[in-house]
Model the fold of this input.
Amino acid sequence: MPVLFACPNPAQISAAIAKSKAAGASHHAPLLRALMADEIALAVMLPGDRLPLSMLDPTRFLKPLVVLLGGDGITPDGSRDCGPEGWQQSRRLLRWSRWTLLHGTGGEEAHYDWAVEAARSYRRVLIAECGTATLPTWMALRAEVAPYCPGAVLQCDPDDFHPRRPAMAEGVTP
Done:
């Protein structure tokens, strides 16, 4: 079930930003700050989630809507990066978007600052967090269904891979 944040609770959002910073994972903070300032609405989806079509109606929100396909596309059981097929609406969301970020690298706040700036200008932003393995599939689908949509593609260095699995302790098997 997607989570839609349209009416922010500043105290909860501040707490979420503080927790993410403490955990060393503050890359989503720009989205949360824009949400707290009531500049954007934010829908966060994980693989298998489906956004009600009414949410994609551009007349429904007076403020920009950012749809975040999160979790690097990792399936709920943690088994794989599912790519666009993990979201039944991937084609529709790419067509709906007026600016798209295909995010196939480690998160940095600057990446999400770009998305907030794009939301201010384009009003309908899609962020697809994905892994190195499925970034080419996302790129091909975007070229097929939304070839003229502006945006950015972020990928790691050719000799690197995303997401990295945490190192296992010696003698421990996954």
Remarks:
- The mean pLDDT is 83.
- The longest helix spans residues 109-122.
